[in-house]
Structure formats: C-alpha cells, structure tokens
Amino acid sequence: GMYFVEPETSEPGDRSTHSTFLATRYDYLRMSKAMLDDWQNDTCEGKYLKTIYERRIAKLRKKYDKTNAYTFGKSYGGQFHFDFGGFKDRKIFVLDGAYGQSILIDMDNFKIVAINGIHMNYNWHKIALSALK
Questions:
Q1: Which of 1, 53, 96, 125 could form an S-S bond across to 66 if both were Cys, CB 3.0 to 4.6 Å?
Q2: Long-range CB pairs of 102-106, under 8 A, 24+ apart, other chains included
Q3: pLDDT tens for each residue of 4-63
Q4: pLDDT in tens, 2-13
C-alpha cells in the first residue's frame, strides 16, 4: 500500500515536505490504469488530468537529452513531464522516479509502460519512450 515517507526524526503531527510516497509495482500499474480509464471516460479525475495537460508549462531548457523524462520532456505540469521529441501532439504523461523508475501513460493510444528500475543504467529513450511508437 501507499504511505507518506517521514524522516526518522519526525514528531507526531509533522508533515513531509516531499511529494514522495512508497507503492508497490502493482500499485503504480493500478494508478496508471485508473488514470487512463478516467481520461477516456471523462470522469472528474479525467477532467482534472486534461486540465493539467492543457495548462502544462514549457521548460525552456537550453539542452534536451534522451536519458530520462526530466531532461527530454519539453513541458511539465502536476508532477508529470510532457511533449517529447518524435511524439508530436501525443498526450503522453510521464513520471520519473528515483533509481530509474519511470511510468509512461499514452492517453491517445491506450498504452502504459512501467519500468521498475533500481538504477538508471539503461537506455530510457529506447526502452521506455520508444515502446510507445
């Protein structure tokens, strides 16, 4: 299940200032599937995701590289990376996590790619993003 991560020095009532939570690989897949279903069925959550996409903000980076969503996505919003080279006008939501974890949700083609890495020593563009071609 999910729970928020608190430092060992936390006192009762303290709140984390991080957006980190722990979930199993199955939890991540369930969340991704729920997002895809909500998007397609135009539920309240689906409308919220569409608003995040519509209001995304350009990153205006000087250099984009293909090593992960953070460095390759041209925009972001609501913890997601968007707008990847080679995927013009595709509504792809990507979350980058620690140690090479990555979740890609292609809202247009109903595909999910989940990578449960323990390090970033892999070709993210080839394994993750290219799987959505």
A1: 125
A2: 102/68, 102/69, 102/128, 103/28, 103/32, 104/69, 104/128, 104/129, 104/131, 104/132, 105/32, 105/35, 105/36, 106/132
A3: 555 556 566 665 556 666 778 888 899 999 999 999 999 999 999 999 999 999 999 888
A4: 445 555 565 666
d(CA 11, CA 83): 41
Compute φ and ψ for 83, nearest 5 degrees: 60, 80
CB 94 within 8 A of CB 108: no
pTM over 0.85: no
Measure the CA–CA gap between 45 and 106, rounded to whole angstroms: 16
- Length of the chain as a residue count: 133
CA torsion through residues 71, 68, 73, 27, sign: negative
Tokens of residue 133, six digits: 């071609």
3-class secondary-structure state, position 57: strand
